[in-house]
Design a protein that fits this description.
The protein is mainly α and about 70 residues long. The chain has 2 helices and no strands.
Amino acid sequence: MVVGHAIANLVPIHLDEVRKRREDLVTRTMAAVKDRLTKEITYWDHRANQLKDQELAGKTQCQNQLG
């Protein structure tokens, strides 16, 4: 009787609470990952353009270090 009541009434409520918390956590985690990856892509894209500009200007890493 008590177990039946718990299964019918308490477990679904608890399951909904846990599901909502987990879904919120997953949503926040996905947003954080997307934000971080976007920042990384932006950084490396900018860095590649800098290096390309240096190369086109005739400057390489070795030339910068030598003189």
